[in-house]
Amino acid sequence: MKEEEGEKSKIQQDLQILTKRLAHINDSLARKIDTRNEFDKVIQETEAAYLKILESSQTLLTVLKRESVNIQKKRQASS
């Protein structure tokens, strides 16, 4: 019986240690998950901004090409 009580005490100590370690790991994971979520949000916002810039640059290129053609036509017409 004394041996079982000693084993029980040892197991309870081990359980306390493991419980503290588990709590520490859970806190660490929660912080890392929050950080990852923030990075994901910044990445999504950056991708959206990049797509807007790309769309704007394509529109600008289209306008420049059209204006270039118009200028060439005006030059040819005045020649």
From TrEMBL:
GO cellular component: ciliary basal body
InterPro entries xref list: SSNA1_fam
PANTHER family named in the record: MICROTUBULE NUCLEATION FACTOR SSNA1, SJOEGREN SYNDROME NUCLEAR AUTOANTIGEN 1
Listed name of the protein: Uncharacterized protein
Protein's organism: Ostreobium quekettii
